[in-house]
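W.,

You were right to be curious about this one. When I first looked at the sequence I had no strong expectations either way, so I just let the prediction run and decided to look at it fresh. Below is the sequence, 246 residues in total, followed by the output.
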Amino acid sequence: MTHTYNITGMTCSGCQAKVEGLLSKIPGVKNVSIDLSKGEATIEMDKHIATAELKSVLKDYPKYQLSEVNHQLHSVIAELNEEETKSWFLTYKPILLIFGYITSITLLIEYFQGGFYWMRWMNHFMAGFFLVFSFFKLLNLKGFAESYSMYDIIAKKWSGWGYVYAFIELALGLAFLTGFNPDLTNIITFVVMTVSIIGVLQSVLSKRKIKCACLGAVFNLPISTITIIEDTLMIGMSGIMILTIL
């Protein structure tokens, strides 16, 4: 992956060489290219490197100040442009397989229970959904939080929400699985997913090319109607279960 950053304080080729050398020493950095006239550094990485880590190697030289240039957005757009060449199925294959697995397993559970009971099936489906999706988010929690902050209405204002959200999904999955306080579990699900879908709708309607964070930072899935369907399904199921309980 390649990210671009602003760097101020460089006045000559010596400064350029110094900054390039410092940044190149960071583990995971493959190449550093600095445009002195623009004050920009293009860094090629083997893996995501936090901006704070990049800044830390320049701390002994306070005149050099590194800052982000919407590098996350540039990276995501570049990746999504590559996705446009793929077929719809290949693009969404991970999420389709996951939904297929969860649906199949929960239907098998109903079959071996001796009959199909809608409420029980929805409860199992939602447990599987939240447990699986939280698992992928927790694989790279920081990467998920950064991607989520690009479109979620709460995460945009508070970056910590992405970290909390992943554990909320895990807790909801366990609550549905164990049958813990169905009223509270479904109400929280309804509220959390309704808030979540707002940012998704805004991104889709504005036709912004943003990476969907539903499966964390593991897969490169663009936000689309699939994401809307995913959130709407959870909102609908929790709503039905709330009405049934009432």
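Here's what jumped out at me. Residues 2-69 form a domain with the Alpha-Beta Plaits fold (CATH 3.30.70.100). And, maybe more interesting for your project: The chain has nine helices and six strands.

Coffee later to discuss?

I.
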